[in-house]
Amino acid sequence: MENFKSGNRARSNAPSEKPKLVFSAPKFKTSINLPLCSDVEGARIYLEKRKIDPSKFYYAEDFNAFVKSYKGKSHQDLRVEPRIVIPLYHEKQLIGFQGRALDSKSKPKYLTVMLLDDVPKIYGLDSVRTDAPVYVTEGPFDSTFIRNAIAMCGADADVERWGISNSVWIYDNEPRNAEIVRRIETAIISKKHVVIWPPEIKEKDINDMVLAGHDVQNVVECNVYSGLEATLKFNQWKKI
After folding, report:
1. Which residues of 75-95 are buried (b: 16+ CB within 10 A; e: fewer)?
2. Lower CB count within 10 Å: N or C terminus of the chain?
3. Bigger pLDDT: 78 vs 87
4. Which CATH architecture has domain 30-119?
5. DSSP 12-74
6. Separation of alpha carbons 86 and 37, rounded Å
7. Over the stretch 49-83, which tens digit does the pLDDT of each residue have?
8. Contact (CB, 8 A) for 125 and 140
9. How many distinct helices (H) and strands (E) make up the chain?
10. CATH architecture group of domain 120-240
């Protein structure tokens, strides 16, 4: 009778449609359950010596155990060792992190673990203004010394995909490094804006330049090139 009233004339004993099973994507913790480097003496001293703000990063005494606390996550190079943990966020969600070795002999220096697929391997993406030039550095530590900067946590990414249309690429000052030279040349060919370091700068990266007393922000802003001018400056830089 109820079926008749509702317009369902099918037999009451007719097989009902099977319910569709919907599986939601796995959800990870949105925070990192670790002490800040500013609260751990060894990590704090290490970062402060490099003039890096220790309150921006976390400390894992056992990076191997920390990674494995995220179900199903691992890395081929994991071992029991302390590392500074660099969080990666996108749209206010924790999407991964890097572990930076404290021991200079520990290889690789950086270990990147992503918690989600098809997300940007970029540090600082949630804190930059996309309506202004965005400076792209090679490492998260270097990016903290430049205004409105992000850092690649892996190979060069297509930053335009993530809402950045006005990017300036900053590579290490290593004219004898074939990989760095190749990447700068590729960026110029791709019509990107790049920083070509002037000859008076001898240090190889931004952190070293800061420690040497350079006004890195000013040096960067005064040495941005693109197109033919970038090619000319690049060829001069390679000969240094």
Report:
1. eeebeebbbbbbbbbbeeebb
2. N
3. 87
4. Alpha-Beta Complex (3.90)
5. TTSPPPPPPP--PPP---SS--S-BGGGSHHHHHHHHHTT--GGGSEEESSHHHHHHTSTT--
6. 10
7. 999 999 999 999 999 999 988 877 767 778 889 99
8. no
9. 8, 10
10. 3-Layer(aba) Sandwich (3.40)
